[in-house]
Structures are given as C-alpha cells and as structure tokens.
Design goal:
The protein has 149 residues and is mostly helical. The protein is built from seven helices and no strands. Keywords: Membrane, Transmembrane, Transmembrane helix.
C-alpha cells in the first residue's frame, strides 16, 4: 500500500505542475489581454485545485499512517528536528505543501466571487503563482530517485 500510494503521489506532481503552468499562463494572458473568463478557464482552475486536494489527501495518508520516515520522526520528534533529512519530511515538506494548497484554494474561492473577468484572471494568476512557488520550494528535486518512481 505504501509503495503504491508513494508512486501515485510521485507521479501526480507532474500532472499538478502541468496544470499549474497552463492555468497560470492562461490567467496572465487573460489578465493582461483583458479576455473573458470562460468555462474552460473555470474547468482548468477547478481541475488544478481538485488535483492539489487529491495530492494533499494522499500525502496526508502517507504522512500520518504509512511513511516509515515520519513514523521514525514521531518516535523522537526533538531528535528529528536536529536531523535535517528527518526535519524536511516531518515538518518542512508537509507544511509547505499544505500552505500551497491553502493559498491555491483561497485564490480559487476569491476568483469565483469576482464579478469582472479581468479580476478573476488576476486573482487566479497571483494566488496560483504564489502557491506554485511555495510548493516548488519543498519538492525534493535534488533527489533524482524520487522524481520518477
């Protein structure tokens, strides 16, 4: 179960990255090009945030129930804070990812409430870009073996 969820969690990041880039680029084009906010824009936005939620759910299941790394950290949390690798997985990764998901959700909620199309695009562009930066800051890109499980 652990390896299967870890595999899905690892590959889902690439779908999220692709969706993020598409949504953010389209939002900037809509914002600066003064374009209408279409049903397609809304669907892409919902897909991006929905996929983030799925990724967060899988990550939380891994974090709380299945990961031997976090289980080890939970046994001696004070000691884990002194170990950079354990601290990364026990605190930094999960915290940054949850903050990124929350920022994206706030952006989605605010863009849905906006009346003007340009405001929808602007809100989407800003919040999703910030969320992407936060998320990318804690993806383990430096560990090549984790990129394509």
């Amino acid at each position: 179960m652990y390896n299967s969820l870890l595999f899905v969690h690892s590959w889902l990041r690439w779908i999220i990255l692709a969706l993020a880039l598409i949504v953010i680029i389209k939002a900037f084009i809509g914002w600066f090009g003064n374009k209408d906010y279409s049903k397609g824009d809304n669907a892409l936005s919902a897909s991006f945030v929905g996929t983030l939620h799925l990724q967060a759910l899988i990550g939380l299941i891994l974090y709380v129930f299945l990961s031997p790394i976090t289980q080890s950290a939970f046994q001696n949390f004070g000691g884990a804070m002194k170990d950079a690798a354990l601290r990364y997985w026990a605190v930094e990764h999960i915290l940054a990812m949850l903050v990124g998901v929350i920022i994206a959700q706030i952006g989605r909620s605010r863009s849905k409430k906006a009346v003007e199309a340009v405001k929808k695009h602007k809100t989407t562009a800003i919040f999703y870009l910030i969320a992407l930066i936060v998320i990318l800051s804690r993806v383990p890109f430096n560990e090549a073996g984790r990129l394509f499980r």
